[in-house]
Design goal:
Blueprint: E1 4-7, H1 12-25, E2 30-34, E3 44-46, H2 52-61, E4 66-69, H3 75-80, H4 82-103, E5 106-108, E6 111-112, H5 136-155, E7 159-160, E8 162-164, E9 166-168, H6 181-192, E10 194-197, E11 205-209, H7 210-222, E12 234-235, E13 239-241, H8 243-253, E14 258-261, H9 265-273, H10 281-287, H11 295-309
Parallel strand pairs: 1-2, 1-4, 2-3, 4-5, 5-7, 6-8, 8-12, 9-11, 10-14
Antiparallel strand pairs: 11-13
Helix pairs in contact: 2-4, 4-5, 6-8, 6-11, 8-11
Bound molecules: serine.
Length: 311
């Protein structure tokens, strides 16, 4: 992995992954693409992932050896527009996999805790288990895991992926996910010392701080291929928490912080269909995954960084 094309490079993961990869592999070796132009320096191209021809042309022109496909609609957005979600999430993935096959590229795309559903065991969710998600996003993620396995088995494309928990960061907002409350809460804690949660008390989901997510992508992509049994769908985990756990962690640093609830039934239903906590032992065993940040360490860093960012 030394010349990498990222789709969705201005999204929540992409904006930080681009900077992270450039610090490791050099600015000119990481080509950002998205449907709009950002403000970063370095190679960048406008690419709509539903345009297979354009994606192929850009990957070929830059002579990349890896594609990291991040362009997708998140869970709540996908419930608002399921047909569009199918077109972007599945159509975009298929196009990106085809480019990887044609140009013989290594391939990464994220799956999610959203690939599980109400019939999945909720606690310590096993690596290999029932996956009958009830959201369009989840249907896309399961199909995506299978499609990536298929491209490896059938065409020998070096596809790899993880099931990300809700990702928390202070750089780019997520936009349209169910776990977004766990990002918003920090912004509101700094701005107003109060937050109204759209997810109900006692609703546990897996979460992870962005530096751990970025590190895990690089670690997986550089891992010895012969050790990877679960190529495209490694459970990874760091923090299992409910809204009141975030509130308590924030209160350690901002004692006046107050939280109340105004539950959004759509996102609450999605949250309740996802695991409380997932088992990451396969990722630990097969490529050494380990998260550094727990809830307290993440909270301290988020509040410090956002205090600077928001002045
Ligand atoms: N954070 C995502 C969402 O809430 C889950 O992968 O949609």
């Amino acid at each position: 992995m030394k010349k990498i094309l990222i789709t969705g490079a201005l999204g929540q993961i992409g904006s930080e992954l681009m900077t992270h990869l450039r610090s490791i592999y050099g600015t000119d070796n990481v080509i950002g693409t998205d449907i709009r132009k950002g403000e970063q320096d370095g190679p960048f191209e406008i690419v709509d992932v539903t345009d297979a021809k354009r994606l192929h042309e850009v990957a070929k022109a830059y002579n990349v050896d890896t594609i990291m496909h991040l362009a997708a609609l998140l869970s709540a957005k996908a419930e608002e527009m399921p047909q569009k979600a199918w077109d972007i999430n599945m159509g975009g993935l298929m196009n990106a996999l085809e480019v990887a096959r044609e140009l013989e590229l290594q391939f990464f795309t994220p799956s999610s805790i959203g690939a599980f559903g109400p019939s999945t065991p909720k606690n310590n969710t096993p690596q290999d288990t029932l996956q009958r998600p009830t959201t369009m996003y989840g249907v896309n993620k399961v199909a995506g895991e299978l499609l990536c396995d298929y491209y490896y088995d059938r065409f020998g494309v070096d596809t790899r992926g993880v099931r990300f928990p809700g990702l928390i960061s202070y750089v780019a907002p997520p936009g349209g996910g169910t776990t977004d409350y766990a990002v918003e809460i920090y912004y509101e804690a700094i701005k107003n010392k109060a937050y109204t949660s759209f997810i109900g008390e006692g609703t546990y989901m897996d979460m992870m701080y962005m530096p751990d997510a970025l590190h895990s992508i690089v670690q997986l992509m550089e891992a010895d291929a012969s050790k990877l049994q679960h190529r495209n769908a490694f459970n990874i985990a760091a923090i299992s928490a409910a809204p009141e756990d975030f509130a308590a962690a924030i209160k350690t640093y901002i004692p006046e912080f107050q939280m109340d609830y105004q539950v959004d039934p759509v996102r609450q239903k999605i949250a309740e269909s996802w695991p409380n906590s997932i088992d990451a032992s396969a990722a630990q065993k097969e490529w050494g995954f380990k998260a550094e940040y727990n809830l307290d360490a993440m909270t301290k860093d988020m509040l410090d960084k956002l205090a600077v960012k928001l002045g």
